[in-house]
Amino acid sequence: MTKPNDKGGTAQSFGSSFTRFLKASSNMLGAFEKQVAALSMIIIMLAISATIVVRLFNLPLPSLGEVAVVAMSPLTFIGGALCSHLHQHITIDVAELMPNNVFKTLLRGLAALSMAAFGAIFTWLAWNLFTYAVESGEQLTDLGTPIWIPTGFMVLGAALICVHSIIDLLLVAMVRNREVSA
After folding, report:
1. CA 161 to chain centre
2. What percent of the chain is predicted at pLDDT more than 90?
């Protein structure tokens, strides 16, 4: 319940619960992305190890290098979304050097807006590539893996980058003097 002297009244409590929802949503997506990236690394290591064994013993089995290459797609694109969530992507950290909190907030908002625009454009471009891959039925050469699998991870990763950036933008707009990733 709000006290009579509280500024914002129920809007403030709604804002804080919505802020908690946004942070929890971003953290849940981040946990998913972390698991996908870790699983991709495991698949890559196993596929490369199996390929080495097949070649070492000259076994009549296909190379699993293609599996490793395909597993690089979720590692790259879902992992990129994880970097976006963790704020470990390439940015200019000049905002942290600014003594003025208003200017810091504006710079964080601009960075989030830029990332959201990048994510949206990248999602659109990746979607076009994905739909082409589905329609064409193209496959990789060694194992016949459909091209839509790695391009699908590209679409998902780009969309997740966009979602994280929109959440960051909303948090910047709603909360002052805070860490976006907290």
Report:
1. 4
2. 66
Q: How far is CA 111 from CA 86, 92, 95, 130, in A?
A: 14, 9, 10, 28
Nearest to 87 by CA among 14, 12, 172, 11: 172
Which letter does DSSP use for residue 179 in this model?
-
State the Cα–Cα distance between residues 92 and 176, nearest whole angstrom. 20
pTM of structure = 0.83
What would the pLDDT profile of 133-177 be if each residue is shown by its tens digit?
Answer: 999 999 998 899 999 999 999 999 999 999 999 999 999 888 754
Helix or strand holding residue 120 (H, E):
helix 101-136
Instruction: Return all residues near 22 (Cβ < 8 A) that are at least 6 apart.
Output: 167, 170, 171, 174
What is d(CA 140, CA 159) in angstroms, rounded to the nearest whole number?
24
Residue 47's contacts (CB-CB under 8 Å, 6 or more residues apart) are 64, 65, 67, 68, 71
Token couple for 123: 């999602």
Nearby residues of 53 by Cβ (< 8 Å), 6 or more positions away? 59
CA 134 to chain centre: 23
